Amino acid sequence: MAETTTRSSGAVTTTTASASSSFTTLSPITQIAQDHIFSILLLLPMDSIISFSMTCSRFRSLALSESLWEAVCRRDWGPAAVDALKSSAEATNCHQQLSWMRLYKQVRQLDSVSCHRLSDPDVGMVLPKARASHSLNFVSDCLVLFGGGCEGGRHIDDTWVAYIGNDFRRTLRWEKIASGVPTGRFGHTCIVVGSHLVLFGGINDAGIRHNDTWIGEVVLHRTPGFAVSWRLLELSSAPPPPRGAHAGCCIGNNSMLIHGGIGPAGHRLGDTWVLDLSENLRLGTWREVVMTNPSPPPRSGHTLTCIAGNRTVLFGGRGLSYDVLNDLWLFEFSGKCSNWVQIVYDSQTIPGGNSLPRVGHSATLILGGRVLIYGGEDSERRRKDDFWVVDIGAITPVSPVMNIWKRLNAKGYKPEPRSFHGACTDGSGRLLFVLGGMVDGVVRPAEPGGLRFDAELFLAELVIFKCNTEE
């Protein structure tokens, strides 16, 4: 090892030449093959990878490489989301390779959404009628709209499809597929399981609650185009009691979870049920999840969002005393033991946290594993237009938990505040589609609240693509 000795003012200083070269020569980590270091880095969080890149130039090139950060994105977001992002980037003329590291940081530091109006009543196309309490799902690269309620409290029984593909800003062309099957209803739940839809419950305009279960599938024909086939699911057990305005989501690989709602006698429910589906989705088994621990009180108009595998988040709704809620619950589902855990937080410590209580909102899993909450209304039926994210990954054993809520800024188009709308994300979780709902309208003698049904479709874009070549 080469050393240099310097004498100055009687002091002797010995320095080691080429420290980084010596580190490279002597450090055991430098003897590890690059593909093994790559695998080790994939086990680390983002901050640790960045810190590792600062050790030497050799490690910096590896730790900041696009191949590593694409792998990190696949690890944290899932391969389906990454593949969908690639396809969407190509459709938005981002022909250069994506900067995965920059995109990862942007998702992690998300602070705003950019809204775009997609429905244009002036183009002369046939559009779905105004409605609320309907379902909107993204499946097989299409938006699928079913049912809902409209003026006069009447139910709707139609199914519409609009192809999205990778070009999310295209002028959408809705196709009305069918009417009458399933029968008309609003306040139902409809979820995506693989490439299929699973619909349960709802209320018709006679006030009758349903407890039937339907399977839907989007089929592409060369002529005349799209079709959605619906069939009643055969059950091997008794279904849950009839209800509407309940919450539901997919959980696990082939199961549906529902909670609460309004039963036949008009009472709010607090029960939890799971539908287990066969692999070919030809047979279903309903079973009630009996809780021994505390569980969410009865409610309606709330949301359930599957965040990962067998974990689900419940938020808000209207309780037994007609009060609007802002409590947050986590459901851990397993075959042997399933339980609810309340996530306690102090809304007074959150900027704007006093506006969190709501009913008739949407809560959707977005890119990065957080839940995006939009709209809804408060106890005085004032509709909302705010966006919030809940970072379930930031939950700690300490109660109350801190820093899990964040309000996002909304840029671009300004949609009207709304409640009981439909919302879903695309395959990447980067784009949120919102359709219809209740908005403020002209006050009529028969409608003291001044409610109006809406037919608008708009898009909230969570991340703006940037390529490696952009500064």
Helices and strands in order:
Layout: E1 3-8, E2 11-16, H1 19-26, H2 34-41, H3 46-53, H4 57-63, H5 66-77, H6 79-91, H7 100-108, E3 112-117, E4 135-139, E5 142-146, E6 149-150, E7 154-155, E8 158-163, E9 174-179, E10 189-193, E11 196-203, E12 209-220, E13 226-232, E14 234-235, E15 247-251, E16 255-262, E17 268-277, E18 283-288, E19 303-308, E20 311-315, E21 328-332, E22 339-342, E23 362-365, E24 371-374, E25 387-390, E26 405-412, E27 422-425, E28 431-440, E29 451-461
Parallel strand pairs: 3-26, 14-18
Antiparallel strand pairs: 1-2, 3-29, 4-5, 5-8, 6-7, 8-9, 10-11, 11-12, 12-13, 15-16, 16-17, 17-18, 19-20, 20-21, 21-22, 23-24, 24-25, 25-26, 27-28, 28-29
Helix pairs in contact: 3-4, 5-6
Reported for the largest beta sheet, the result is:
8 strands, mixed
Task: Measure the end-to-end span.
Answer: 42 Å
The side-by-side strand order for the widest beta sheet comes to: 23-24-25-26-3-29-28-27
The coarse silhouette is: globular
Classify the beta-strand content into a percent band. Answer: 35-45%
Structural class: mainly beta
The number of distinct helices, counting runs of at least 4 residues, comes to 7
Mean pLDDT: 86
Helix content: 10-25%
Radius of gyration: 26 Å
List keywords for this structure.
five-stranded mixed sheet, 37% strand, single chain, eight-stranded mixed sheet, mainly beta, 29 strands, disordered N terminus, 471 residues
Can you put this structure into words, describing what you see?
The structure is a single chain. The protein is mainly beta. Helix content is 14%, strand content 37%. The protein has seven helices and 29 strands. The strands form seven sheets. The chain has an eight-stranded mixed beta sheet with strand order 23-24-25-26-3-29-28-27, with no helix packed on it. It has a five-stranded mixed beta sheet with strand order 14-18-17-16-15, with no helix packed on it. It has a four-stranded antiparallel beta sheet with strand order 4-5-8-9, with no helix packed on it. Strand 21 and strand 22 form a beta hairpin. Helix 5 crosses helix 6. The longest helix is centred in the N-terminal third of the chain and has 13 residues. It is globular, with a radius of gyration of 26 Å. The protein starts with a strand and ends in a 10-residue tail after the last strand. The N terminus is likely disordered.
